[in-house]
Amino acid sequence: MRVGFFQYAVVWRDRDANLSYIESKIKNEKFDLLVLPELFTCGYAYDDRKELLPFGEDLSNSPTIKFFTQLMQRCGGYITGSIPELYDGKLYNSSILVGRDGLVASYRKIHVTDYEKRAFTAGNEPIWGQCGDAKVGLTICFDAWFAPLSSLLKNQGVAIICNSANFGGEVTPTIIPIRALENQCFYINCNRVGTEFFEGEEEAYRGESQIVSPDGKVIAKADNKESLRIIDIDLAEVNHPAFGSFITKDFVTEHNKYRVEMSCLS
After folding, report:
1. Residue 265's pLDDT band (cuts 50, 70, 90)
2. What digits encode the pLDDT tens for the residues 214-239?
3. Contacts with 236 (C-beta within 8 Å, 6 or more apart), sequence order
4. Dihedral angle sign, alpha carbons of residues 92, 75, 73, 161
């Protein structure tokens, strides 16, 4: 399976510019699954909810989904990343998974940061989508800090977890290999690069997008520059990591000893 990420500097407050730029970089590529950064249509920085409302999309009539549907008819695979979703008067930070036939799945970020709470409502349901032979779980940035969410996706049989991100700190890149290893699945994290202004202060995003194997091994990693990486992975490694297989041949039974549930749904 050919998978990858496109790490780039999101254009602030210009959906058309971002979609055009993505198309210009990937239109001649062939892949099965590609991950984009968090809030790739508008950027992450904002002062209040009103600034994001013009970028909120109804997923039943989304210009971004329509655009990607046509693009995937040329690239042959699936693409995912998060956008502001506007539903019933609420904004959600939502990952969309789009293929040649349209929207496959959408996921509303469960773990929103204090900063994001000024605009976004938290989701309450783990989501996966089918991409060919692979079940693909969706998470967004801060979600990666919470092991139970990945465990819930694992128990639903995902082979790959896709995490769209916007982070500048050094902690998150260290968490990703742990999530892959503890769930014996592939993990694709796509962060962005560039800078944005938060309350007058310029902050930088660190990039360092990565693809990690079920053994927790980083098999592709970017630096802090724009990067399009597409590699081949072997889905047979899921639940059968090379080193881990010396310990047990049956990781699934070990996972099934636990029952992971969500509470306090919003």
Report:
1. low
2. 999 999 999 999 999 999 999 999 99
3. none
4. negative
Those residues whose C-beta lies under 8 Å from the C-beta of residue 122, and which sit 6 or more positions away, are: 108, 109, 110, 111, 112, 266
Q: Pairing mode, if any, of strands 128-131 and 210-212?
A: unpaired
pTM: 0.98
Say if 203 falls within a structural domain.
yes
End-to-end distance of the chain based on CA atoms, in angstroms? 36
Domain count, the chain: 1
Neighbouring CB atoms inside 10 A of 61's CB total 8
Sign of CA dihedral 164, 84, 263, 138: negative
How far, rounded to the nearest angstrom, does the alpha carbon of residue 109 sit from its chain's CA centroid? 10
**Spatial distance between the Cα atoms of 11 and 230, rounded to a whole number of angstroms:** 23
For 146, counting Cβ atoms within 10 Å of its Cβ (0-12 exposed, 13-18 middle, 19+ buried), the class is middle
Query: What is the CATH classification number for the domain harbouring 140?
Result: 3.60.110.10
- Residues 6 or more apart whose CB falls under 8 angstroms from that of 238 comprise 159, 184, 185, 186, 214
